[in-house]
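As a representative case, the lines below give one protein's residues and fold tokens.
***
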Amino acid sequence: GVEVTVTTETFKVEVDQFGKTPIKEYIMGRQISVKAPLAETTIQYMAALMPGATISGAPGAEVLSVTTGTGADLLKLAKPLRLHPVSLPDADKSEDFVIPLAATSGALTFAYKLDQERIYNVEFTGYPDTASKLFTVGA
């Protein structure tokens, strides 16, 4: 159920002679996001997804405290995110989708339902690395 979205923003150059018909187009930027439903809903995993979160208390009685996170630099928190098809063996990276720098702002949605597993829906944003690479596909 993981969804990857890549969007590209462009600037279309128009001149009077051709009305609204573009004569040229430039890429102004590209963005990538990943929406992932996470089924392992432990306090430790939730803390890892929430910038500014801390865990206190003894094992088995942990308490997750989350601050507002105002001013947190998500790029400094970003790490590689690898999506690997379940149908392939772990050693086969031929279809892996890798974002070298990805982070989540900590926006979560989940519901407590009697007849369903509790799933956290998390959105990651990708950032370009030092070589301007946004993502790779394959080994």
Observations:
- DSSP finds two helices and eight strands in the chain.
- The longest strand covers residues 22-38.
- The radius of gyration is 20 Å.
